[in-house]
Write a structure and sequence with these properties.
The complex is a heterodimer.
Chain A (H helix, E strand, L loop, with lengths): L5 E10 L2 E11 L4 E6 L5 H9 L6 E6 L2 E3 L4 H7 L1 E4 L11 H5 L6 E2 L6 E2 L1 H14 L17 H14 L4 E5 L7 H16 L3 E6 L2 H7 L2 E6 L2 E7 L5 H8 L4 H10 L1
Parallel strand pairs in A: 3-10, 3-11, 6-9, 9-10
Antiparallel strand pairs in A: 1-2, 1-4, 4-5, 7-8, 11-12
Helix pairs in contact in A: 5-6
Chain B lengths: L6 H5 L4 H18 L6 H26 L7 H18 L4 H26 L3 H24 L3 E3 L4 H7 L2 E2 L3 E2 L1 H18 L1 H11 L1 H6 L4 H27 L1 E3 L4 H13 L11 H17 L10 H25 L6
Antiparallel strand pairs in B: 1-4, 2-3
The chains are: A alpha/beta, B mainly alpha.
Chain lengths: ~260, ~325
Amino acid sequence: MSTPILELENVDKSFGPIHVLHNISLKVMPGEVLCLLGDNGAGKSTLIKTLAGVHKPTSGVVRFEGKPVVFDNPKQAQEIGIATVHQFGGTFPLMSIGRSFFVGVEPTKGWGPFKVIDRKKANAVAIKAIQDFGITRIDDGDRLIGGLSGGERQSLAIARAVHLGARVLILDEPTAALGVKQASHVLRIVLEAKKRGISVIFITHQVTHAMAVGDQYAVLIHGSVAANFYRGERTREEITDLMAGGEALAKLEAEVEN
Amino acid sequence: MSGQFSFGSLLRRPEAGAFIGLVAVLAFFVVFGGLSFLKTAGVASWLNVAANLGIVAIPIGLLMISGELDISIGAMVPAGSMTVAILSGYFGLPIAVGILAALGFGVLVGLLNGFIVVRTAVPSLIVTLGSLFAVQGLVLGLSVMLTNTTSIPLTSPAWAKAMFGTFIANQFQVIILWWLALTAVYVFVIHFKPVGNWIFAMGGDKVSARNAGIPTERLTIILFVLSATSASFVGVCQAILFNSAQVSSGMSFIFNAIISVVVGGVLLTGGFGSIIGIFFGTITFAIVNQGIYFTDFDRNWSSLIIGVMLLLAVLMNNTFRKMALSYSPKKK
């Protein structure tokens, strides 16, 4: 068996007296999609922030390709290949596609003090990266981000992270604000990333979306892993009930039916 | 496609509104004031105003693009004048010392503004409102304490006059050349170098910009240093030009700079704008400011015109911005 690309072992995180994460142990293999499910306040955000280098675990170990890692800031996590894409894509509505794609890592031409951004190259690379993910509608790198749909923005952000060398993609509720069709775009891109051997940690509370792309599932309740299982081991109803904290929804359904 | 001329793509640029506004006010004043307004004396009158304002307006515009604001410039212009006048005029130190001290004071105030904004996350309007009053009080207090007056004469050597405060052809202030040169440098740095891209990214979404590895805090501080130092520089030039400095002579810069920037197409909430737009916005403002003297109108109306112009410019810029956002290339 190969080494997991990312592994958490007994990770705890507290903010002062408040314990947010308890004893989290998870493994993600290369090219695997881990769906992180949980209700609001279950600790999903804290967990991904810990993985992305925003927080440091209070105790426990995070391993990347088998080696223990500690990040001082999100930049360090990005440098070894853990990229986070936030709900709205983390893009800049009034910048052009080419410019925003390369924010912070602009390709340049020329020399010395006259080194300038290579706009043509930036646009061409950005457009190619996004089209390779199957979004062929985008073909002009000078278009502003704000003119794209929510799904396209999200896709662009994922394409950007992959282009910049991400090996583990953390997607924070990428489909939460999207319509059905837009969401399916994003899900297709998740599968495309997986096909390229990139691991994806997919945070959502929409069970349907999780069922569509997930290989492995982890349900967080009150900061602990309540269940960790593989595709096909649980039914949709079981997952929904787990997320809602057990019996609540089943009971509600029973009441509705009566 | 790109490279080919297209009227539509020009309209989607941030400076489109500013350029149309400029043409409109030019037409307005030519109609009501006649062509004397475009002759040498007329051009000099508004170019002088534009240059003094423009040097401050561009860094203010950059701060606004990055999502901040600096109103302490209103105190920094007289602070620059007074520093050079007190040191080199009253105490008789070499003019170079006075100039460097004035610029140094600008750097110091800018650093202070920047650090407070970055460290405390208090809105920069409030922080610089504080430093506006603090610097004003400091300059007034120090000048009365040291010189017993609030208006100080300054005689500068010929080289300093020639560089910072002379009239070319008896009408054009030499600061116009500084303004043009600085504008060219800003255009290059902001629109062609990566750091310019970072400033736009900061204004668009600060958290994402930081996650993308952009040194947002350092850039914010640098921009505050730039605006305070630029204001101080304009003050120095004015003191050398007029051979004297007064304590209170800079408050109009605050609103005038903001008007120029907004007319120039910079989005108040950050992330959108252009240097050329601010350049046109500044000229537009200066023309309205000076043009009234060439017409038969009572000059008391000029504020009305400026106010209406500002509102029209904002509405026009909003329209152009929407066009830019909703634009997608037509399928062929």
